[in-house]
Amino acid sequence: MKSSELLTKKDLMKTYWRSYTMEWAWNYERQSNLGYMYAIMPALRKIYKDDDVKFKKALKRHLEFFNITPWLSTFPLGISIAMEEQNALKDDFDEESINNIKIALMGPLSGIGDSFFWGTLRVIATGIGTSLAMQGNILGPILFLITFNVPAILARYYGMYIGYNIGASFIEKVQKTGLMDKLTYGASVLGLGVVGAMVATLVTINMPMKIGSGDDAQTVQKIFDGIVPGILPLLFTLFIFWLDKRGWKSQYILLLIAAIGILGAWSGLLG
Predict the structure, then answer these.
(1) What gap in Å lies between CA 208 and CA 199, rounded to an integer?
(2) What angle (nearest 5°) sits at the alpha carbon of residue 197, between those of residues 194 and 202?
(3) What contacts 207, CB < 8 A, 6 or more positions away?
(4) What does the pLDDT look like over 48-69, one tens digit per residue?
């Protein structure tokens, strides 16, 4: 761990242990945001000390949407802590860059983490454990747990300090060269790109009703996709965004989505 004016290794370890609860408060509105805020809370308390206004503002800042492969969550946590520390020490620090960097890391790290931990390591661990378990060997489940969890725990532990050290040194260099504004802008653009990709891949709307007759008949879905591919998920997302801006609570929005789905399926408008 790099030397720090405000934090000790013990403070980072508190965040490390809390990172194991990242998925416990997972929700459909902002996914891992509550777990992220809970994990970083001890470090924020130490950084902002008795300044309750800045402390609460920092907590609120980390309640924005966030989701990542759990075993890599400590890497962005470390970077966030380093940036929060700089924010406390420097009056001219750009607070928006903290969330922009975090969101920019979310997509690439999740792609790497899901491929390695879910797609590779879990398959290898299952193969080793299953082959022994089918022979009645008690080492089967034990080796499965060891093969999967040892690399996962090491990645989580060292990710905490690597993220903090990279964040502290990188921010210092960037501020000296005057590239902070460009970095913030680039991170915000990348973050918006990640959100846009999530809309295209996670929101699905199918309208199977046909217009026309015979061979010339086309589904409503095909007509809309002919205008702009994926325009229906985009329009629906913008509609939900509009409701959110109008002050609708998340539970009412979820009930409305469920009602639209049920009525759409019953009427045949949605498939």
Answers:
(1) 20
(2) 120
(3) 219, 220, 221, 224, 232, 269, 270, 271
(4) 988 888 899 999 999 988 888 8
